[in-house]
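Example 3.2
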Amino acid sequence: MPLEIVRNDITKMAVDAIVNAANESLLGGGGVDGCIHRAAGPELLAECRTLGGCRTGDAKITKGYQLPSKYVIHTVGPVWHGGTSGEREKLISCYRTSLALAREYQCETVAFPLISSGVYGYPKDRALRVAVDTISEFLMENDMTVYIVIFDRGAYQIGSKLFADIAEYIDDHYVDEHSDSRRKRHARMQSIEKAGAICEGAVSDFMAAPCAPAELRVGGESLNDILEELDAGFSETLLKLIDCSGKKDSEIYKKANVDRKLFSKIRNNPDYKPSKTTAIAFAIALELDLEETKDFLARAGFALSHSSKFDVIIEYFIKKKNYDVFAINEALFAFDQSLLGA
């Protein structure tokens, strides 16, 4: 997917470029900066000495040396002073200048740490919001895969109020689904047994009946007639919905956090079977309501269930009419769920 939040060690990311949260000297330091210099070897420091430092909000590029990445993009994030000293604008500039360098050097994959969120003190939820907003804005106009790398899940957090609201919604809708009464379970078992008896009778009738000479018929209709009357599949429905939205294909697949190559496969294959996360991502990009989303997912063979935390979180955002796939992915990551997109 074009933008993904992952938990990993950034020095082990096999990408075209990793981004280093450096200081203005570019001569190494603590945290991510120190880890990258140690992993790259002394050659990185030697090249950094030739760059003449870097201003806050700017970025410079070097080779990756002993790292699995080809390049290291060094950017200097702002120190947090309460948010009144232009910190947000400087942090946005870090991401923009780094991405511009990556594009200039024809990088297809880039991994960022959460810049300024360590010893520089930028609140983690705000730092993540800046990162996601700035990167997603860039990806609307550029084809690139970008990772936001979180080393320790404990160092990551979304807004406490949002987390509490989602947790409460999960508690109300996920737990209740599992507090089924004995009477309901008994009724359900009776229905299953009844259905089983019907199926056994149907199988007996079918086995006793002579084979149809030419075409299988059900209730006077041929099987071909029935198949022709089936609802449109996922791919056909998706393309019709995009046409009805009046938006370009690229607007929708980028908003869904899906890359161009995958969308091309969907467009060119009427029988394409997406993953559930991809199907939901398109429902979010199309801003479908809950019933429309359920119908759309059914065409891909999926459903939303209160027995899945992932599904309940998706339902929460749709009911709130929050169709920002990146905000949803932040929440899914916080609750240790799969992310939306390809």
